């Protein structure tokens, strides 16, 4: 998974990139269809805001976290992103396991007669 990192009023250093790669390696193994993750770290009014955005199975998923310290803000956003990805994965699994539509006995009898089973 490719991580696109950008900073707004924050110097993006190699240590931050390594931390993000370490944090999001687990997500990459659990959700192998994720191609890229956009991370924006900004600091406004003394508070760090971390925004995460990605595409997963046809839907745009985003999460954000805020804290006075950068690393806990990243952890908060990561936790929210994991929850959103799990929710989306559950929706996709539920769509695959729809209950079959039952027909009334009269209609079922007509369908069997049309099949002309010998």
UniProtKB/TrEMBL annotation:
InterPro entries: HPF/YfiA_ribosome-assoc (IPR050574), RHF-like (IPR036567), RHF/RaiA (IPR003489)
GO cellular component terms listed in the entry, alphabetical order: cytosolic small ribosomal subunit
Single biological process term from Gene Ontology: negative regulation of translational elongation
Pfam families referenced in this protein's UniProt entry, alphabetically: Ribosomal_S30AE (PF02482)
Keywords: Translation regulation
GO function terms (MF aspect): ribosomal small subunit binding
SUPFAM superfamilies recorded: Ribosome binding protein Y (YfiA homologue)
Top-level taxon of the source organism: Bacteria
Signal peptide segment: none
Keyword presence, rRNA-binding: no
Quaternary structure note: Associates exclusively with 100S ribosomes, which are dimers of 70S ribosomes.
Record-stated family: Belongs to the HPF/YfiA ribosome-associated protein family. Short HPF subfamily.
Protein name: Ribosome hibernation promoting factor
Species the sequence originates in: Shewanella benthica
